[in-house]
Design a protein that fits this description.
- The chain has helices at 2-23, 25-31, 38-48, 51-78, 84-105, 115-126, 143-160, 162-174, 178-191, 193-220, 226-256.
- By secondary structure, it is mostly helical.
- It has one domain.
- The protein is globular, with a radius of gyration of 17 Å.
- The chain starts with a helix and ends with a helix.
- It contains 11 helices and no strands.
- It is 80% helix and 0% strand.
């Protein structure tokens, strides 16, 4: 199991990094919305505990998307005026505040489950727009290894301490923006604010598939087995990603117009 934890997410991150090199930060941002991190983490958490724990953790991950979007949007806007260090500090601080807010929101009305949906809709209108760039970029040697290492560390830490963290925090941390932060920082350092805004523009659309996965998993683990629940949740996520592809193409064409 440990070997799987150390390889699945880093390999997925590697594939994502290759796609970024081939097609640019906007496409990479959109593809990062697919649950390449949340799916393995939620699976490991569920297998390590039980379906009830997994379902509650998936709900925590669903709420965590609000904090994730808050980080991405904060970093993107700050990148216009600040260097990468202050952007990441402010972005993670905003994530932490929103994570606590979402933790409290779970204890309130069931209607608070709509907050991630509202956050997604808001992000679609608020993300920084700009023409998608097709410029050729040079890539530093440490970019992909750093992303893979970050993914491996996140997987091991969350799964090892999930019981101590509890269902809500383990879910929230499963959507911690480790991949988003590495993509944002590496693009910021190498290519500047414009590349960051392109990446976030893609992320703000692709995140719908993570949301579809987490919410479906939350519902399904309560009524069916582990593999059936994950299979159907992955189907829901793939469907959402296919639908956002149409929006992604429309936004890209509109930006070039």
């Amino acid at each position: 199991m440990l070997l799987l934890k150390l390889t699945i997410i880093p390999l997925a991150v590697l594939a994502l990094g290759i796609m970024e090199r081939l097609h640019g930060p906007r496409v990479a941002g959109w593809l990062s919305g697919f649950p390449v991190v949340a799916l393995p983490l939620q699976l490991f958490i569920t297998l390590d505990h039980d379906t009830a724990f997994g379902s509650a953790s998936a709900l925590g991950a669903w709420y965590g998307l609000v904090a994730w979007l808050s980080f991405a949007m904060t970093y993107s806007w700050c990148s216009r005026f600040l260097n990468w260090f202050w952007c990441i500090v402010i972005g993670i601080a905003v994530w932490a505040v929103m994570a606590v807010v979402m933790l409290e929101a779970q204890q309130l009305s069931p209607w608070t489950k709509l907050l991630p949906v509202l956050g997604f809709v808001l992000a679609l209108f608020a993300y920084p727009r700009g023409e998608a760039s097709d410029e050729q970029r040079e890539h530093v040697w440490w970019g992909l290894p750093a992303r893979m290492l970050a993914g491996a560390v996140l997987t091991v830490v969350i799964t090892q301490f999930s019981e101590a963290l509890g269902t809500s925090w383990s879910g929230l941390f499963s959507t911690f923006p480790v991949i988003a932060s590495v993509i944002a920082v590496s693009n910021h350092i190498q290519y500047g604010s414009r590349a960051v805004r392109e990446a976030v523009a893609g992320m703000s659309m692709g995140i719908a598939s993570v949301g579809a996965f987490c919410f479906s998993l939350y519902l399904l683990l309560a009524i069916t087995g582990v593999w059936t629940a994950f299979g159907l949740a992955l189907l829901a996520s793939s469907t959402a990603h296919a639908l956002t592809y149409l929006l992604f193409k429309h936004k890209g064409a509109k930006a070039k117009a």
